[in-house]
From TrEMBL:
Protein's GO biological process: ent-kaurene oxidation to kaurenoic acid; gibberellin biosynthetic process
CDD domains: CYP77_89
Name used for this protein in its record: Ent-kaurene oxidase
Family membership: Belongs to the cytochrome P450 family.
Cellular compartments per GO CC: chloroplast outer membrane; endoplasmic reticulum
Taxonomic lineage of the native organism: Eukaryota, Viridiplantae, Streptophyta, Embryophyta, Tracheophyta
Natural source organism: Panicum virgatum
Keyword Metal-binding included in the entry's annotation: yes
Parts forming coiled coils: none
Stored InterPro entries: Cyt_P450 (IPR001128), Cyt_P450_CS (IPR017972), Cyt_P450_E_grp-I (IPR002401), Cyt_P450_sf (IPR036396), KO_chloroplastic (IPR044225)
Gene Ontology molecular functions: ent-kaurene oxidase activity; heme binding; iron ion binding; oxidoreductase activity, acting on paired donors, with incorporation or reduction of molecular oxygen, NAD(P)H as one donor, and incorporation of one atom of oxygen
Bilayer topology: Single-pass membrane protein
Length: 498
């Protein structure tokens, strides 16, 4: 009897495998990049810059292909056309986030709006952010804060040049400090110079606060847990990874709790201010401490990072290309005269807009969008994509496609101009802020801050790179974060005499 059952079981297994093979042959899957058994293509991605490997593979396999990352199958999209099909037309089938273990822990399992799945939490969270912080009406309310931030940075640059004109200044230090101050003020109602954290038993400086709530997170998400690729081995300990991520999460939570509690005391005294915290407490009295910490932390984190990346790369390119810097300066002079350039001038500065858009193309702040998960069978670019597949959108490849861009390696703002006018249609070939319903909520604020800052910095100073920095274009792993901070010589311009 047992032998009969064994034969039957084997026969059933063979039939099932044959049926699976038949089904696989009956669907039109994307071309697959050859890999190794078990690990798939992981060994080909060990350089930690997957966007570049993905782009090279696209030359052989086309704009859409599949890879194996351990136990998972991922479809990589390398053209704007196919990426938009996934983000817009097929959104209903590809709306789930796929988070790495580090991000899952740090986001408390998708308690961040940007990292959550499409659903009620995401809709409500984005609605609150747009209404209170990042929508067009909210941006008008915070206009004075943005102006003050840029004025303070310009004043800091002037003081640094005056104190030591022969030493190149570190752009990142100044811009990071200004941007962090703005993000904290928008989130909590005021900038902070220090905070007492009970769990640490001491006062943290402003720099230490930044490290705990922004910097440490950005570096921690680069940590790779090999168990992400082999979920069936999730029971195996990875102590060094877990210790680092859990320590980062605990520090972030402790600092954010201290910051929020200080502002709750202010609110209890009846001192209302314009801030996201004030708004949330007024609108959502039932929020738990965890929900409040995560929501406030997210807006601090996101406002303090990607805008820095884009603006630093723009100023690097401006300093590196004196003829393009002169063209931008002359445009500002013609439009603004001796007036200080402001956000109102932006629509009348086509070359400035071209500088910003070309920077987003050449140095996209997020070269690879957060992976998405196909939760029902769908199709992309004519290929069948089964449920359970990851979708990776390679923004870097989309922006470096020779079919869309002449000499894509070159930073050339004029490609966005037509007879001196800004060609907004060209921006349809780029996706620096994502697309569809999940397009970056902070797009308008980032554009206003970056463009106004770039214009003010060029209006006030002539920029020149530190010797030897002309080719320092390396980035930090998978991000577009500049590995070497921008260091430049600044020469103040005499208003009205040039």
């Amino acid at each position: 009897m047992q032998s009969v059952l064994a034969v039957a079981a084997v026969g059933g297994l063979v039939a099932a495998l044959a049926e699976r093979a038949s089904n696989k042959n009956s669907i039109n899957l994307p071309p697959a990049v050859p890999g190794l058994p078990i690990i798939g293509n992981l060994h080909q991605l060990k350089e930690k810059k997957p966007q570049q490997a993905f782009t090279r593979w696209a030359e052989d396999y086309g704009p859409i292909y599949s890879i194996k990352t351990g136990a998972s199958t991922a479809v990589v999209l390398n053209s704007t056309e196919v990426a938009k099909e996934a983000m817009v037309e097929k959104f209903s089938s590809i709306s789930t986030r796929k988070l790495a273990k580090a991000v899952s822990i740090l986001s408390r399992d998708k308690k961040m709006v940007a990292g959550s799945d499409s659903g009620e939490f995401h809709r409500n969270g984005k609605r609150h952010i747009m209404k209170s912080l990042l929508g067009s009406s909210a941006l008008k309310q915070y206009r004075a804060s943005r102006d003050t931030m840029i004025d303070d940075m310009v004043s800091t640059f002037h003081k640094m040049v005056s104190d030591d004109p022969k030493t190149p200044l570190n752009f990142r230090e100044v811009f990071t400090s200004g941007l962090f101050g703005l993000s904290v003020a928008q989130a909590l109602g005021e900038d902070v110079s220090s905070i007492y954290v009970e769990e640490f038993g001491r006062v943290l400086s402003r720099d230490e606060i930044y490290e705990a709530v922004v910097h440490d997170f950005m570096w921690c998400v680069l940590e790779v847990d090999w168990r992400d690729f082999f979920p069936y081995l999730s029971w195996v300990p990875n102590e060094s990874f877990e210790t680092k991520v859990l320590t980062t999460e605990a520090r972030r939570t402790a600092v954010m709790r201290a910051l929020i509690n200080r502002q709750k005391e202010r609110i209890a005294r009846g001192e209302a201010r314009l801030s996201y915290l004030d708004y949330l407490l007024a609108e959502n009295a039932e929020l738990t401490e965890e929900q409040l910490i995560m929501l406030i932390w997210e807006v601090v984190l996101e406002a303090a990072d990607t805008t820095l990346v884009a603006t630093e790369w723009a100023m690097y390119e401006v300093a590196k290309n004196p003829e393009k810097q002169d063209r931008l300066y002359q445009e500002i002079r013609e439009v603004c005269g001796n007036e200080t350039v402001t956000e109102e001038h932006l629509p009348r500065l086509p070359y400035l807009n071209a500088v910003f858009q070309e920077t987003l193309r050449r140095h996209a702040p997020v070269p690879i969008l957060p992976p998405r998960f196909v939760h029902e069978n769908t199709s992309l670019a004519g290929y069948d994509v089964p449920a359970g597949t990851e979708v990776i959108i390679n923004v870097y490849a989309c922006h470096m496609n020779e079919k869309d861009w002449d000499e894509p390696d070159e930073w050339e703002p004029a490609r966005f101009l037509d007879g001196g006018r800004f060609r907004s249609a060209e921006t349809n070939k780029t996706i620096p802020f994502g697309g569809g319903r999940r397009i970056c909520a902070g797009m308008m604020q980032a554009t206003n801050i970056a463009c106004t800052s770039i214009a003010r910095f060029v209006q006030e100073f002539a920029w020149r790179l530190k010797e030897g920095d002309e080719d320092k274009v390396d980035t930090v792993h998978v991000t577009a974060y500049k590995l070497d901070p921008l260091c430049a010589y600044l020469t103040p311009r005499a208003r009205g005499t040039e």
